[in-house]
Amino acid sequence: NVLGPDGLLFLATRTAVSNRGDSCAAVLHLLARAFPASAQCAEAEMLLARRARAEGDLDACGRLVASAAAKAQEVSVALEITMEKARWLAASDRLREAIAAYEEVLANKAARGPLWPEALYGIAAAYEAMRDFRAAIPYYQRIYVMYAGHAQLAAQAYYHSGRCFERMGDVSAAIRTFKELAEDERFAAAPETARAQERLSSLLASNTQ
Question: How confident is the model at residue 52 (pLDDT cuts 50, 70, 90)?
């Protein structure tokens, strides 16, 4: 009561930054119990859902996402909850539903910023998991063309785009994509750049045999 929902949410985020996960979860649970009608409750339940998903408790994640969505009062929080719902659906192998949830985010202009490239990546990864490589590639390409400033995500998208081409049997497109990634200095430190170089060397060696 002294801290209120704002204070508890701030305390939870500070403990999370300090890598005190159990303490963070305890504060979030307290916030949800003490202030169930507050705007901050939706955000607390979303963060708890994220934690449950990371721990592999998908049932709890689904329950928390549904509860958070029903309580969301701000568009920005509602969009974050939709993203978490999409991640939960993808983790549950409900890939078509995950794609639809990610598309909800892309359809909302308020989702500008990091949510857009993350949603694009989620759709691409879902299509790739379904082995629909042709559908996945344009989403991956949009990330590294339009959102190169998100270097880690862009490098991952570049690499997976190349892998999709490779799995489709389009070796020349795969070589071109891996070569572009390997030569782009913006992504020099990314692990995917080294992996792209390995795939490029392998494909070039196979082509000369």
Answer: very high
